[in-house]
Amino acid sequence: MDTYMFLIFVFSVLVFPGLLFTVILSLFTQYLVRKISARFQRRMGPSYVGPYGVLQPFMDFWKLLRVKELVKSKYSMQRVAEISLLIGIACITGAIILLPIGLFNVRSPLDYLVFFYMASVMPVLALVLASLSTPGPYTSLGVSRLLSILTISEPVYFTGLFVPCFIATAGSPMLLSIGSASTRVMELWSHPVTAVILLLSLLALIVALQSKAMYPPFNIPEAEQELIAGFETEFSGPLLALVSLLHDMDLTVSLLAVVYIVLGGPAPFPHFSLGGVVMVAFKYVALLIVSVAIKNIFGRYRLEQALIQLLKYGAAPALAATLLAMAWLLLPPA
């Protein structure tokens, strides 16, 4: 790797689309969630810190970072929790480089599997390990509920992205490559059969994203009336700031993955064009508005209700999309 490519790599990891860009976009996403939710509830939302309150999430994050961590139990392992959360943030930062966003794009066959492992599996493991490092009765119950929900939502999310990525790259040397899939997936929307497959995948992904973000009606792991703050109960100060940032970064990268793998990213405009940037932003905000609308319309499910709804509206469409994709690829055209 020559000096120029090394500098591009460092810039991509640390600035765009790496750590700095991901953190800024995550905090802005939190701002949009809070602002749109406030409109649904006839409130103002963030309004005073920065233009239109856009800097309020950053100020909240900064205040938590400056607060001293209170260790309430001799069994708490604060350093383990901090390291776990930082590893989760690092994995998400590395995963976003696999999306065709920046100047330095890592593209290879089967890179979708690496992306899913870094962007979805590792943050969950980091969050669970950090929660169990600060033990408590509410923490344990919150973690158990979280794992119960993610047992269904993570496979649904994986399948919802896997099916479009697979059928878009089938027969290509770049099988299951996110970059190749994002450039070809718009062609699939023009065919009636593959359009149905993509619609089923998109439906499953919307349900899975709602569950991954722990938004209503799937905010069971942190039900205030039952579990105080659930798996976050023992967090305060810098730990709570890192947990909040990890959650927002997870949601941000998950939305970007849907935008690029299922909705074609900047298509029909070229990459790095003004129209392409506007199109990516439009698709991203549209998905976020759908998620926030569901968040404010529905009440919280009980655990068994949530699992049933995940199976009905998440797993079932994902399975149907998988079967249709197999039939589309294996059966000869009429």
UniProtKB/TrEMBL annotation:
Keywords: Membrane, Oxidoreductase, Transmembrane, Transmembrane helix. It is an enzyme of class 1 (oxidoreductase). GO terms for cellular component: plasma membrane. One of its GO terms (molecular function) is oxidoreductase activity. It is found in: Membrane. It is a multi-pass membrane protein. It comes from the Archaea. Its EC number is 1.6.5.3. The keyword Acetylation does not apply. Pfam families: NADHdh. The chain crosses the membrane at residues 6-33, 83-106, 112-134, 155-176, 188-209, 275-298, 310-331. PANTHER family: FORMATE HYDROGENLYASE SUBUNIT 4, FORMATE HYDROGENLYASE SUBUNIT 4-RELATED. This is NADH dehydrogenase subunit H. It comes from Desulfurococcus mucosus (strain ATCC 35584 / DSM 2162 / JCM 9187 / O7/1).
